[in-house]
Write the structure tokens for this entry.
Amino acid sequence: MNTWLLFGIGSALMVCVFTAAWAWARRINNYSIVDAVWAYGIGLTGSLWLMPSAGGSLKQTVAVALLVSWSLRLGFHLQERIRKAHPEEDARYKKLRGVWHDRVSSAFLWFFLAQAGSVVVLALPFLAISNCADQSWGIWETAGLCACLIGIFGEALADSQMKQFKISHKGSATVCQTGLWRYSRHPNYFFEAVIWCGFYLYACGSPWGWATFHAPFIIIYLLLRVTGIPPTEAAAVLRKGEAYRLYQKTTSAFIPWPPKSENSNTNTSSP
């Protein structure tokens, strides 16, 4: 199938999906659902692009499997978190409500449509893979597969450890420092970045796959500077207070790294 036709179909589908999601979010008065829809949307778009050209080849089949595994796991994780918190809305969207005041509904519609656009842009590595005539397996596919498996397993483990901690320390101001969280304040974000680097490496085995470097770059930038660490840490400081500030001083923000002692030089930058 023509690449531009695939791109157009994927784009139109995401506009429909996110418009429907906006209508549902408006009905239940909780715009947090966009997070889960975003994860599912990337899986749906990438799979749509890959399926017409899959033809049973190992290269295309593994790409679909990796994408769907990531999408369903993350989407379900976010969906459950949103469901359990409902009707409480995520702090990010509460803040946006305050900014947009009397035009909340229309502003969120444009926000959801922007998310639809981001899905299409971020899924482009899979469009590159689908456009590859050479179905042979090479070093790029191997590197991408390894990175994706490490990332998917690591992120799932980090989320599971945090979930168990919250169950056993419900209502406590204690900071989770068990498992991966002893070495990174955001191991789930780190492994999410690893997954996207894996998607990119996998795409590099296809013509023009190298040009989709924007995907991991955007994800890492968002995690480090926009929707990831900054709002998460601000909320954690409000909830945990001094305990979390100490955690910030001793533990790497992103890359897993041995923690510093409480008495070490706090001016030393963490990875």
Summary: Confidence is low (pLDDT under 50) at residues 265-271. The chain has eleven helices and no strands. Residues 155 and 262 are 27 Å apart (CA to CA).
